[in-house]
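input
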Amino acid sequence: MKLLRTLLSIFSKKEEIIEDVKAEIPELAQETAVQENKNEDFMYDWSNLKPLNTSDPDLVQVDWIKYYKVEWPKDQVVLHHTVSGPGIQGDLNTWKDFTSHIATCMIVERDGKINQLFSSKYWGYHLGAGKASLDQRSIALELDNWGGLFLGDGNNKQFGKNADGTPRIIKTMQGKFYTVYGSVVDVPVTHYPDGFRGYYYYESYTYEQLRAIGELILLWNERFGIPLDYKEDMWDVSQKALSGEKGVWTHVSYRKPSDKQDCHPQPELIDLLKYLNKLV
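output
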């Protein structure tokens, strides 16, 4: 990826781990950029995608120890998103609080920077599907993203609770997008007119993120033989995913709508996943 970003410091564990990767809807404000969830004539060109070069400066090793350093064969790639703002430190802080080793192998930031927490041959809990073998035999790939958004309509809305347990009520502003935490964000948005898992709007995954996950999936296809055929049933609970069928899935393939909403079926993401099989 030809992206101009600063190469961050590489921690002492990089050599060991990186070489492993080798082997009711309100009216929108005028200025809001919203992409409708429908087939568009324009899609990104994925024809020059290649497996990730592990010397790519966009690949950075994170100093992370909360994973299980036990090798397992890999059958599945599972796409996630974080429900958080820019940067990964908040995600890491949350995972550090768990007794079990909960983490994803990679977190891809909005600018395409790939943060590797541990080698793809190792594992951490990431599915919550009640079957550890699914976590062990899959590679979790996380996208930095706010997830589902609410469109302000000028009325009061509850966003969770305050520290004292009382409802956190915010008077929303017409046409502004709110995260699940009640903060206003100005981000590209994908609109689902019929809704997707409880939300009509989601932050859009960026081109840089999509390109990065394409390169990673191609790498893991090359390394582990994970099939690249597109799974039509990946956007809801799939018995095929739960049974361990090989391929690329999303978190929603394993969990009910009230539990998880990652990832959302953005047209560009679907287009990417359908194209990957043409590259091998």
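quick obs: Residues 149-186 form one domain.
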